Structures are given as C-alpha cells and as structure tokens.
Amino acid sequence: MNTPELRTRVARQLTESVDRAKHITAFVGLDGFVDEIFHVVDKRESPDKYQRLPTIAKFAERLGAAAGTSTNVELVSQWTKLGGNGPIMANALASFGFQVTYLGVLGHPNLHPVFAEFAKRAEVHSIAEPGYTDALEFEDGKIMVGKHQSLRQMNWENIKSRFGADNFTLQTERAQLVGFVNWTMLTLMSDIWAALLQEVCPLLKGPRRKLFIDLADPEKRTPADIAHGLELVSQFQKYFDVTLGLNESESLQIGSNLGLSCQGRQPEDLTKLTSDIHTRLKLDSVVVHPTTYAVASGPDGVHLVKGPFTPKPKTTTGAGDHFNAGFCLGKMLGFGTAESLLTGVSTSGHYVRTAQSPAIADLAALMQNWPA
Length: 372
Description:
This protein is 41% helix and 25% strand. It starts with a helix and ends with a helix. It contains 14 helices and 14 strands. The chain is α/β, with parallel strands linked by helices. It has one domain: UDP-N-acetylmuramoyl-L-alanine:D-glutamate ligase. Strands 6-5-1-9-10-11-12-13-14 form a 9-stranded mixed sheet, sandwiched between helices. It is globular.
C-alpha cells in the first residue's frame, strides 16, 4: 500500500536520479488556460474579512435555495496562474529538470503574460489564444467554469500552418515522453489524433517512446465521441507505450462507456475497474487517482498506493496534473508501477500543500518525512 520501506527506497532512487532526469526529453500539448482561483463568501464580516463557504454541498444548498427567487454570490480572487492540463503537467515536468517542449494555445501572436515564467523553463510554442477558467475552490473539491471559444483553433490545419507537420514529427521523434491531454475540452483532438496516426506515427524513428494521455472529465462528450476517442488511444499503442490517466469520476465514465461493471466506490472496486479498463484497451498502463490514494494496472500487475492526503489543501486546481507528472517521472526513471504511483501521489501531495511544483529533492524530502 505505502510502507516506510517503499518510501525510503524510492527517496534514495530519486536522489540518485537528479542528474539523469535532466536528460529526459518531453513533448507535451495541446491546451492552455488562464486560471483564476476563487473562494466563495459565506458571511462577509468586514470590508477585509469574510468566512469562506467551505464545501460544494453548502454551495449547492445556497444555489438550490435561490430557485424561484434569486441570490447573490460573492467571489474573492486568490490568484491568477497558468492553467490547462498540458501547461500544468509540462511545468511540473520542467520542475523535475526534464527538457520540455510545449505546443498549445497560450496566446497568439504573443504569449499571455501568465505563461512567461513557464516559457523560461521550457521551449514553448503557441498557435492560438488560451481559454479562461474561473476555478471555485472548496475544501472538498472545485467547480471549474470555463470559456473555451479559442480552443477550436487547436486543430490539425492550424498545427500544420502555424507550427509545421515536419516540426511536429521532429519534436515527437526527439521526445522520450509525449503527452496529449485535455481531450474533452479540445473538441478537435480526435481529428488531430487520427491525423497523427496516419501522417506522423508511421514516420517515427528511434527507440519506442512513452505516451501519456489524460482525457479530462469526458462527462459532457457523447458516448459515441468517447468510444471513438478510446479507439484512437488504443491505436497509439502500436507506436508508443501508452498510459491512460484518469481520476475517480473519469474512471467510472470510461468503465461505463466500455460496458464494464462500475458498482461500488471502495478501493477494491476501483482496483478491479482499473484492471478491467487496462485489459479492455490493451494499453501499457492505466492509472486512476482518487483523492486519498492511486491505483494502476501496468506490465508488472495491479498496485494501490495511499497518498499524503490533507483535508486543508492550499489549492486543488492542478493536483491531478501534478499527479500525472509525478507518475510519468517514475515511469521515465524506470520505476515499477508501485514506485511510480508513489512519485505521483507525492508530487500532488506537495503541490496541494504549497501551491508550488516540486523539484525531485522536494519529493525525496516528503517521502522521508511522510505526513501523519
């Protein structure tokens, strides 16, 4: 599950791998958002002091009580930061020392200022304006309110005209790790994937690469769209060692789409579902990360590792993307599935406590001083 022996061993392996991580190359895309983080006011005590509405359930009660009448919701901005599954994951990979190239929608013709620091840590390319997200954070989760009009500009024709098909092939070929994330919000991602499978993947030379895919909450996509997207994900396995990353809700949606049993929410239920999705899609690995633990089915079997859960996170927006980056760190360093799960939960655990992407040394320190 998560023993002191496991943490001590992985902390030592991480410490010994700092220099090796600096030579790992990654090519990630294709989204981009400007995230503004908000708290919802419950009671305003003074111009400078308020009580925060603590849970989504309490917020739902407030909204439900307004049905047939009206209500006023006050939001207090906490900070504005780079957002999108891709930039957050890529930024976290860069914090490990990876050589990261990013392609997405971060501003066009000029980068939005919120991505300026990211552009100092990675080679960043953008072909369109970013999306915008208002993230309402609560102690038990978050509500993401998005404006996605610009994301339609992320399509294969624009990639070819503004970035170049040859350049896309070159960047993929140079990378040891490729990441395609946020399929749900990038409504033309399936078309991009189909084009890559036809025009790019057959041209790739060199060693076999790892590909990480995160669909990002597909609830609003039709069952037919989801089924087609999963078919394309499976086709990538011909050219890559593919990992599909899911949170708990996403795993239930994907399992239902595949006709699998999704009864129960206990760890043993999600463990079986993870294994069943892995078997059905025939990928290298499938990983599912609920709030308090993570489970993965990989070439070395099915493993579950508890995380350093905190009931009072500093932030939760981007926690899943940091888990994904941490899991990929383990995989790229040659760790087994259980060890990669530990690097994943440690990365997200550090992030939600500090709102900062950890360096490898931070992960080792967390494992050596595991929170009670």
